[in-house]
Design brief:
The chain is α+β, with helices and mostly antiparallel strands and 208 residues long. It is 37% helix and 29% strand. It is built from eight helices and seven strands. It has a seven-stranded antiparallel beta sheet with strand order 2-1-5-6-7-4-3.
């Protein structure tokens, strides 16, 4: 069981509030045995990560402000790499460079990955670094998605510290345009067939 995620986030203040609220015993069992060793990405997490088309990434500015950014791309653009690491290519965008600047002074990040149709979510803690394209063009090229028509400028590498799966409560299922099209494909086909039959009947009626 992944333990380092909660062990990392449970401060003494959080534990005290849990004790006062009567939940500390449960969380103490979940945290038992954690020694700071990173939670290891398994095949289950890797499959979930590889199926995502987007995620949210939080970083912290040099002045301590949290910053949340949405990252999107073709399915599988966030890669699971050896040594319990994640990576993705960063493409040319609005040139604000907020996340990139944040990581220069504070490498800690938090990722939030959502699977709305199946009401699943995975939270990840890690330490990230940015590798400019000029420093390692081979790395950036290996993380770029060949079919994605955008210019990669750098790579983000994230060493996973911990992760946690969350319960589905309060997650409203949402579907992409492609998922909806696939779900209603039989109805679309039937509708097209009925329209064709109606046109035939109309043509026949005119002929009579």
């Amino acid at each position: 069981m992944a333990q380092n995620y909660i062990h990392t986030l449970f401060t003494d203040a959080a534990r005290a509030l849990q004790e006062a609220d009567g939940s500390r015993a449960t969380y103490a069992r979940m945290e038992a045995g954690a020694d700071g060793t990173p939670d290891q990405i398994t095949a289950s997490e890797a499959a979930f990560i590889g199926a995502r088309e987007s995620f949210y990434m939080a970083s912290v500015t040099s002045e301590g402000w949290p910053y949340m950014q949405h990252r999107g791309g073709p399915q599988g653009f966030l890669r699971v790499l050896p040594d319990n690491r994640l990576g993705f290519a960063d493409y040319r965008g609005n040139r604000q460079h907020i996340s990139t600047a944040n990581l220069q002074s504070e490498p800690r990040v938090s990722l939030f990955l959502m699977d709305y149709p199946n009401r699943r979510r995975l939270k990840i803690l890690g330490k990230a670094r940015v590798v400019p394209q000029a420093d390692d063009p081979a790395l950036v090229a290996s993380l770029a998605v060949a079919s994605y028509k955008a210019v990669p400028e750098r790579a983000y590498l994230i060493d996973v510290i911990g992760f946690e799966w969350n319960c589905p409560q309060h997650i409203t299922p949402r579907f992409t345009e492609a998922q909806i099209a696939a779900a209603i494909a039989p109805l679309t086909e039937e509708n097209a067939q009925l329209r064709a039959e109606i046109e035939i009947l109309r043509a026949s009626a005119k002929g009579n």
